[in-house]
Specification:
two-stranded antiparallel sheet, binds iron/sulfur cluster, 4 strands, Alpha-Beta Plaits, single chain, electron transport, 4Fe4S_Fe_S_CS, 4 iron, 4 sulfur cluster binding, two-stranded antiparallel ribbon, repeat, metal-binding, alpha+beta
């Protein structure tokens, strides 16, 4: 079991999650983060910290595609442990449907 970052992180990227993870297993893309499933120790601390409710345990149904995406990009994006400012328009994107298709970016983020 692991926790995974899901669609609502895209263009929200509040980054509250990175500060609480005891094993520093968040990785940063251009407009979202992912969790490395093999590094996550399933502590669950990050889940309630996400203002966008984007972090879910992989025991929830229909998260296989997100688990695959987290694993794939955690191997190529830089590690991130220090919280930075959320995007100025993060609130406007919170809860918008279809973000994966329209706005997911495979580009790496800045990292620490
Ligand atoms: S707190 Fe939530 S929305 Fe923000 S970066 Fe972490 S997973 Fe994404
Ligand atoms: S569940 Fe715990 S170990 Fe896994 S990403 Fe969240 S804070 Fe880190």
């Amino acid at each position: 079991m692991t926790y995974v970052v899901t669609e609502n992180c895209i263009k929200c990227k509040y980054m509250d999650c990175v500060e609480v993870c005891p094993v520093d297993c968040f990785y940063e893309g251009a407009n979202m983060l992912v969790i490395h499933p093999d590094e996550c120790i399933d502590c669950g601390v990050c889940e309630p910290e996400c203002p966008a409710l984007a972090i879910k345990p992989d025991t929830e149904p229909e998260l296989e595609a997100w688990l695959t995406l987290n694993l794939e990009y955690a191997q190529v994006w830089p590690n991130v442990t220090i919280k930075r400012e959320a995007p100025a328009d993060a609130k406007e994107w919170d809860g918008k449907p279809g973000k994966l298709e329209a706005h997911f970016s495979p580009e790496p983020g800045q990292g620490d």
